Amino acid sequence: MYHTTGFSKDQILDLCSRAHSHTADMQKPPWPPVLDLYRAVVVTLTYLRRNRVQAALAETYDVSQSTISRAVSGLTPVLKNMLTEFVPTADELDPRTLYIVDGSLLPCWSWAGHRELYSGKHKTTGLNVQLACRLDGSLAGVSDPINGSRHDTFALNESSALISMNPSLWIGDKGYISNDMLTPIRKPTHRALLDWEKEFNTQVNKVRYVIEQAIANFKTWRIMHTDYRRPLKSFRQTISAVVALHFYKIACE
């Protein structure tokens, strides 16, 4: 199942054990009875990792599409809640550590009644998250999602990541210039960049590439990279579940 879910069999069994313990007090399990817990977890992980069409998953497991939908809907919040301990929070960031930050749009279908999701930068709809990593490329945190129409600076401020932090120890792109971070120099309107300014930008961008790698690694969860198809009201919960699973996976490595 590793190439399908991204998790080893032992890791999946551990997730099943955690899910069983987390739902022990419920009157009935949140997954469909036609699927045992193991298959329900595998189905949910596969859906989140590959963003497969539910009808295709239904054919694979010889069940109905509604069964797959109930498994995903039932287990996604369970995965989110039972793995909270693995998710770093803003107050756990080390004020002495240099972090590299960047925003990423997690796309969803174009919802006509939700223009606040539209990102002019990306020309599509979605939710914005801020990701921070260390110089070695290890992911340090992922912010809560906000509407895609918001600028990266606004999203970072909303995440509270820079409260009681020294912004001069953070590196970002030109979208974060107003935050007193180390950023590339923006071209003045009245002249071209000087040679030393170009070299400075080159050196900053050579450091910044690790956050691009961290984002690409996070988006191996294809549901974070391709349009989200489930009801919009479940999108934020799904993002939180994927973040929890991603940090759980990192902790297992």
From TrEMBL:
Residues 112-246 form the DDE Tnp4 domain. Pfam families: DDE_Tnp_4, HTH_Tnp_4. Keywords: Metal-binding. Residues 36-84 form the Transposase Helix-turn-helix domain. Its cofactor is a divalent metal cation. The keyword Metal-binding applies. InterPro entries: HARBI1_dom, Transposase_HTH_dom. The keyword Metal-binding applies. This is DDE superfamily endonuclease. It comes from Winogradskya humida.
